[in-house]
Amino acid sequence: MIRRISPSLVVLAVAVALPTVVLADVGCPMKIEVSQSLATPQAGWTDGQDKLPTKLAGISVFDGPPEQLAEPVPDDGAETRDSRSDIWTLAKNERGYWLTCRYSSTTVTLTRQLPATVTRCETVYEKQLSFIGGAAVVRSVACGPAAP
Question: Within 10 A of 111 (CB to CB), how many other CB atoms are there?
């Protein structure tokens, strides 16, 4: 017995098999491992390594490639007893947006272009905690489509 497959079923099967647009949030790794070394040995000194944590300490959102230095300020935020947040609302543009993740105890950063589906970024900081040097402790970072 031969069965006919409906064209709409074929279209559905192909649509499911194709990659879909990812609408999931983009965030920063909360912790990274780095390897740093002294560029120029100092006479009479021995270099070493502190065991300080290298955890997320802040972000920058750029309107266009980061080297253009177009860094919009957050346009909203919230505050609770133990946290504060920065919120960026990102209008569609041809340049796109980039996210730079900054970490405590290092000059290493991570940068990536955000997908075009991202229209909002929010960073939540601990209010009562900071790293050596004053950088805030980040609780979370999420960039994605705005909530309906």
Answer: 14
In the chain, domain spans: 28-34+52-144
The partner residues of 113 in beta bridges, in order of sequence, read 98
Distance of CA 44 to the CA centre of its chain: 41
pTM: 0.76
CA distance 18 to 4: 23
Check residue 148 and give its pLDDT: 57
Question: To which residue do tokens 């860094």 refer?
Answer: 71
Q: Is 123 exposed, middle or buried (0-12, 13-18, 19+ CB in 10 A)?
A: buried
Contacts of 24 (CB under 8 A, 6+ apart): 144
